[in-house]
Amino acid sequence: MLDVSDTPSAFPSLTRRRALALAMAAAPFLAEPAAAASVVRSWPAAKPVPALDLADLDGKRWTLVALTGRVVLLNFWATWCEPCRIEMPSLDALARQQREGGLVILAVNYRETAPVIRSFLERTPYQATILLDADGDAAADWTPRIFPSTVLIGRNGQPTATVLGDLDWTGPAAHELIEPLLAAPRKA
Questions:
Q1: Which of 87, 73, 79 is nearest to 57 (CA)?
Q2: Is 65 a residue whose pLDDT tops 70?
Q3: Is pLDDT of 75 > 80?
Q4: CA gap 99, 42 in Å, rounded
Q5: How many other C-beta atoms are found inside a 10 Å radius of the C-beta of residue 90?
Q6: Is the pLDDT of residue 1 over 90?
Q7: How many other C-beta atoms lie within 10 A of the C-beta of residue 35?
Q8: What is the pLDDT, as a whole number, of residue 25?
Q9: How many whole angstroms separate alpha carbon 113 and alpha carbon 132?
Q10: Is the dihedral of CA 107, 15, 13, 122 positive or negative?
Q11: b/e map 12-21, b = 16+ CB within 10 Å
């Protein structure tokens, strides 16, 4: 997982003290041993589902409401985040494997411009749909702003879990998270 204090240039308005305070605030989400690459947390039952209305790199709007009936994987990432880049190939592989299974993978980029993202994609091919979170509000609403963070959403539009840190999305841990969501009946 990326600790915000590791990337001072990515957060120019943060002083070292504020970055450390932010990292300490995230500590409860990281109760697993430091060697763990990811931590899975159930979505809090009392937490309302945030709105999702973001544009992709081509300007098309994506809303969570329009995706009801499909399983959604919202992956929050940034080009400067090394753990994000590490997990991207497995997200791509998962998207190819589950293309017909009703899974939608949306990679929500944190506060970077379309030209920066397109330049990154020239060097690092990635097929999932990329949404622009230009002001960072979506990341603030959905995650503790630890990158990467991934929210799994069932066919009913309800989040079920958040994965903090990078995960092999083709491995057994991801399979255990995703298969029950895909196995849920589709509403007619």
A1: 79
A2: yes
A3: yes
A4: 25
A5: 16
A6: no
A7: 5
A8: 47
A9: 8
A10: negative
A11: eebeeeebee
List own/partner pairs for 37-40 with CB under 8 A and 24 or more apart.
Answer: 37/1, 37/83, 37/165, 37/166, 37/167, 38/1, 38/163, 38/164, 38/165, 38/166, 38/167, 38/173, 39/1, 39/163, 39/164, 39/165, 40/161, 40/162, 40/163, 40/164, 40/173, 40/177
Structure tokens at 124: 């690092």
DSSP 35: T
Extract the tokens encoding 19.
């970055």
HSE (side-chain half, CA atoms, 13 Å) at 96: 9
Q: Which carries the bigger pLDDT value, residue 176 or residue 34?
A: 176
Let me know the angle formed at the C-alpha of 88 by 128 and 44, rounded to the nearest 5 degrees.
Answer: 85
| Average pLDDT of span 37-43 | 95
Q: Please give the Cα distance from 126 to 169 (Å, whole number).
A: 14
Say what angle helices 172-183 and 82-97 make with each other, to 10 degrees: 50
Q: Give 125-141 pLDDT, tens digit per residue.
A: 898 899 999 999 999 99
Name the residue with tokens 């809090």. 44
Residues β-bridged to residue 110: 133
